[in-house]
Design brief:
Quinone Oxidoreductase, Chain A, domain 1, single chain, 2 domains, 11 helices, alpha/beta, about 350 residues
């Protein structure tokens, strides 16, 4: 059992702009790991747009400040609490300490089994993953495969399953059907393109400020076509499904590109502009406007999470699904990391240990 010590963590003490409210602090670890808990040393953690929303206090679920930040990350179990190992229930949520009665998804992290020293696990996002060492309730850890790189595992729990659900839950797609996405270089769009290629779909990517490099890269991972948002692509594309991550005028182009009875699913509003009600498209195309939030899906479909992740991991093993990494930083370089993450439109910035 690893004894106590100090752990660096990115702490947010109130909502606001990250450069005003985030600070790197040293937290004292308990002298011993409590019974039913596992001590986890972080390996990799992502920086998401939703992390900025949580820091600003504008995301769909609020944080209770002060707290460590960061939603998605994986680490290695380095010690177990007294009394032996605990059964690992599959779950994306869980408190730090003291234990609380928070509902957990059913089913073990291994199917049936126990957390062991050396396991690679996803940390419950409520604890904040931007910290070096974390004591977590063992029953709330999500066990990951050891044959995949931590950097890819750390990017696999939000964007790829979101793209998977978009493709499977909103339209009866068949090989050859067209799908279109804006924010075409985003992590979700990357996953949508690769998953769509695997299903024989023609995925069109709309990007802001298209460059020659964008087109060759996105086509290399499976895009059927790459468009700049200023182009009138909607005159050529008749999509059964559209994915909106931008809002404002951008989503109107997507809706115009829908075929009859097409569906436009919104998961974000990066432009922070309102969406105008597209009366003509709704009436004459019977266009459907829907929304999707992976966090809600997790709460409402806990038993489905493990099979979804197994599918994602198998595609990663086969080289059919990868996530672009724009930069890797140590936690001490958090200002550089967060600045790049704010500015980057291609690939994710991650913390590594």
């Amino acid at each position: 059992m690893r004894k106590g010590g100090m752990s660096k963590a990115l702490i947010c003490r109130q909502s606001g702009e990250w450069h005003d409210v985030l600070s790197l602090e040293e937290l004292k670890l308990p002298p011993e790991v409590a019974k039913g808990f596992s001590r986890v040393r972080m390996l990799a953690a992502a920086i998401h747009p939703s992390d900025f929303g949580m820091i600003a206090g504008t995301y769909g679920k609020a944080k209770v400040f002060p707290c460590a930040m960061g939603r998605e990350g994986v680490g290695e179990v380095i010690a177990l609490g007294r009394g032996g190992s605990e059964r690992a229930d599959m779950g994306p949520v869980g408190p730090k300490a003291p234990p609380q009665n928070i509902p957990r998804p059913e089913g073990g992290g291994r199917g049936v089994g126990e957390i062991k020293v050396g396991d690679i696990v996803r940390i419950p996002e409520e604890l904040g993953v931007w910290q070096e060492v974390i004591d977590c309730q063992s029953q709330n850890l999500f066990i990951c495969p050891k044959d995949l790189k931590p950097e890819q595992l750390a990017l696999g729990f939000i964007n790829p399953p979101t793209a998977l659900r978009i493709l499977e839950d909103f339209a009866a797609l068949k090989p050859g059907d067209a799908v279109i996405t804006n924010a075409g270089k985003s992590a979700v769009s990357q996953s949508l393109i690769q998953l769509g290629r695997d299903r024989g779909l023609k995925v069109h990517a709309v990007v802001r400020g298209k460059t020659e490099g964008d087109e060759s890269w996105l086509k290399s991972i499976g895009a059927a076509a790459v468009w700049d948002e200023t182009q009138e692509y909607f005159k050529e594309v008749k999509a059964a499904l559209a994915l909106n991550q931008v809002g404002g005028p951008s989503v109107l182009g997507l809706i115009k590109a829908l075929a009859d009875h097409g569906v436009c699913v919104t998961i974000g509003g990066a432009s922070k502009e309102l969406v105008r009600y597209p009366t003509r498209e709704l009436i004459f195309k019977d266009a459907q406007l829907r929304g999707f939030w992976w966090d809600r899906y997790l709460r409402e479909n806990p038993a489905k999470v493990r099979p979804i992740m197994e599918e994602i991991w198998e595609l990663m093993r086969k080289g059919k699904l990868t996530q672009e990494i724009a930069g890797k930083y140590k936690l001490t370089d958090y200002a550089k990391a967060l600045t790049q993450a704010e500015e980057s439109r291609r690939g994710k910035v991650i913390f590594v240990w």
